[in-house]
Amino acid sequence: MADIKQSIIASVFSRRNATGNFEETYVSHIKIWEDAGPEGRKARYILLSQASNGNGFLHKSKHNNNGSFSVGKTWRLAELRGLQALGPLAFNITLSRTYKWQTESAIDQNNFLSALIRLFRQFSGTSASLRLEGIADPDAETLDRLIAGGSDVVNVNGHLDGETGDEVESAQDTLASVEEMIEGYEWASDDVIGRKIARGAADLIEARLLDELMALEKANIHSFLESDDRVGLVMKFMDDALAELDNLDGLISSYKIHLNAVNDDISHIQSQNRGLQVQTQNQRALMNEIRNLLQTVQVDSDALVTLAQESLEQSQSISKLELAASELYKALQAGRDTDIAATMERLQEYRTHNAQFCRRIHDFLTIMFTAQAKLLLGETNGLTKQKRGSRQTIIQHQDIEEYLGRYCGLMLYVKEMDEAIYGRLCAAYFSASSELHGTQIKALLGAYLGLVKKASEEDGEYSNSTGSSGKAQSGMRRAGTLIRSPMESRNKDKDKSSSSTRMTSDGDLRVSEVFLLVLEQINPLSHQENAFMGDFLQINSLNHDTALTFADYMALDHYFRRQAARSNSLSSATVKLVRGAMDLIFGFLPLEIKGWLEKALEKDPIEIVGVLAILEKFIADADEKGNLFLFNFLGKQYTRLKGVFDRHINDQVKSIEQTKLTFKKRKGVAPFIKQFPNYIQRVESQLIATGADESGLGVRENVDAAYNKIANKIFETLKVIANMGGDEEDKGQLTYHVVIIENMHYFISDTAKMNIGSVGSFANKAKSLYDENLEAYIKILFRRSFGKIIDYFEGMERLLRTLASPSDITTNSTYNKHAFRKIVKEYTIKDLRKHVDAMNKLVQKHFIDASVVNQGNASQDVADEGVGRTVLLGVWRTCEEELVKLTEGWTEKVSQCYGEGVGLEFNAADVEQAFKRYKTEP
User: Fold this and answer.
1) Could you write out the three-class secondary structure of 470-482?
2) How many CB atoms lie within 10 A of CB 669?
3) Do residue 184 and residue 40 come from a single domain?
4) Quick check: 282 pLDDT over 80?
5) What is the C-alpha separation between 416 and 564, in angstroms, rounded?
6) Would you say residue 156 has pLDDT above 80?
7) How confident is the model at residue 665 (pLDDT cuts 50, 70, 90)?
């Protein structure tokens, strides 16, 4: 409790006033609980205090987490109206309204309420109304002491009043009276008045004595006034003086009103004077502006003569024209917002001079556009002269750009001052520039078409020459060809001039390489033209916020720059014209490039892959440089050629599928199997040359998808062809496996050398087909010669799975020793050699003899025989390995089941010896 009290005093009652005393003094406190609604109850502290002036206060405070107290609400004790004790731990208190508080201790509640009533009675007196219920007043002793203290004061006052009539007391009696009086004042000041300030008894006595002295002086003055008759006269004079003062006050008020009225008149006059001064200054400034305007609107006659007669050819003359045009420009800009009659006639004259000057510029530049273009084209159509060991290139336009660049300032002037002339100038430039570029690029394409290398007969027309007649051979060539131009059917009916064009001399460069050279010429030409045209025709300044004006170009005053910025806008038709400038200038390019590519790809259709890669690179470059025309143009070409490539792949798939209807040969390598690796190599060489893989171009994905599509069709068609051979079931199966083995061997041997990710997937598929069919072929081959013994040991194997011991097999009549000896007699060493010899003849028939017999082309015979021998060696080696493995397995089973004394007539070494004489010369 003591700690709480000290914390309350330190937190709330520690402030001092100017005299150094505490502003409030702690009296008592109590901890209460009040209702907080849904949150339950909350604890608070009610603090009772007395101020330095004697007033009492009630504070409601909260106990903070750091141990301090903070006051939330305060009531003056004078507001207290009633107290009601609801119980030992609850009471109601009525201030401005009634509060119900619960306490924790009955003793604390009783002490707090007693102190509260005591303090209230102390400064309010006993007559103050305070309603108490269930609470007793404080003890009467305190009130008696308060009354006694008041009697002492009265006695002291009476003693002072009767001081003149009494005899002087003795010194000892006087001292006793003073001490008694001091005690009374000490008690009264502390308990009755309740002011806890450091005032001693001497101060109270002094104050009382001063009050008595003042009362005596008042009484003496009153008695003096009553005894003197002149007082009435003095009072009359004073009344008269006051009346005169009232009259003077009225006069002064009247004068003040008049002065205020005069002051208003003076202020009005002053304001009128200031207005006249401002008006005079404005009139002077207006006159100066009018003079300046007239001077600005006026153009020197020499400048007008310069605009009409000065040459447009020389650079020095162009500078003079720009200066003269700036004078006319300023006059016309200044006159845009004025309708002064004095300037209207002059402005109309200047507008006429402006129109004449703009037409003069138009006529001159229109001629110069054509003249400069013809000068650049010369006798070589704008290409460099042909030299030995070098190729022709497009002559760049630096000379034209330098010549026309001198007129940029005048073009700005025309753009702002005569939009119609500006539009016609732009159209004239577009026409001349388009003709110039068209002549150069057409000449370049014609010259570079001769650089394209025509594909050889082997590369351009891969055929299946399997038929005996020429007609059948031709049909097979069409059906088996893997590389075919997707535009061949489109160009079959072209006239003789087209045919003669295709028969022109060929170069030594691939289509993609020549196309790269073409785009390397066109690409910078397009970028350069786009940049120059933007500067010369001020197309880059079409944005109103960043537009360059003639005032900016000539560094005129800010006034003219603002005027120019306000009026610097073109109509939608003119804006549309200049924004489509590149399309107008290079409008011929899409058809020219399309025609050139068709002619170039006629010479080597497969080069379309390299062309796609080149296009994709230049599309990315155009996008990076922001050349929208080139980006769209190349993008359309890429989309078109991508469709051509897709049709090309579909044609290859159809050609492969058609082979199964026209290809009569059931053995040997199919033509599409032979040509597919070459096809891949040619395509990959283009991708490597163009850097498609390093650049991450999308054409790589298209090519991989094409590979997979063709490879899947190859496998599908090959299986169909293989199934078409043989009348008997066993012969048909052998033929099927022979076709698959030979074709897959050829396919694997060529594709295995390619380090291409997409090729690996179908190369693995081919290897799987090869292994699967080779295993099946060997099984059929072995079953023809060793069928009985294979069936015997396979049955033995199945029986062994059901027996507890291998030796138990002798109890079976089918697999006892007698049955085994009977089988062994049929497979002696001599029989082994005979069977191996028969297998060798059959394998040779499958992989060599039939190829030689069925081919009509001598060179093809040699090639196919070489392929057959290579395949035969692999097949024969696998046959030996499989038969050795079978023999070792049979020998092991015989030893397990029959023990010693029984065995095969031959062993693994005999098998190897039988195969050995056919290894080098099958």
Assistant:
1) HHHHHHHHHHHCC
2) 22
3) no
4) yes
5) 8
6) no
7) low
In this structure, is residue 221 part of a structural domain?
A: yes
Task: Specify if 252 maps to a domain.
Answer: yes
pLDDT at 135: 85
**CA distance to 69, 184, 211, 342, 575, per residue, from 422 (Å):** 86, 116, 109, 31, 11
Q: What is the pLDDT of residue 727?
A: 47
Per-residue pLDDT tens over the stretch 320-353 = 999 999 988 888 887 776 666 656 778 888 889 9
Euclidean distance between CA atoms 379 and 174, whole angstroms:
150
For the chain, what is the domain count? 5
Q: Are residues 407 and 338 in the same domain?
A: yes
User: Average pLDDT for residues 169-190, to the nearest whole number?
Assistant: 49
> Would 667 be classed as within a structural domain?
no
Radius of gyration of the chain (CA): 63
Percentage of the chain with pLDDT > 70? Answer: 79
Amino acid at 427: A
Pair 515, 611: CB distance under 8 Å: yes
Within this chain, do residues 322 and 409 fall inside the same structural domain, yes or no?
A: yes
Tell me how crowded residue 282 is: count the other CB atoms within 10 A of its CB: 10
List phi, psi (to 5°) of 408: -60, -45
Per-residue confidence at 429, pLDDT binned at 50, 70, 90?
Answer: very high
Boundaries of domain holding 149: 144-162+176-227
Same domain flag for 784 and 909:
yes
What's the Cα-to-Cα distance from 274 to each of 82, 277, 279, 752, rounded to whole Å? Answer: 73, 5, 9, 106
pTM tops 0.90: no
* Whole-number average pLDDT of the chain: 79
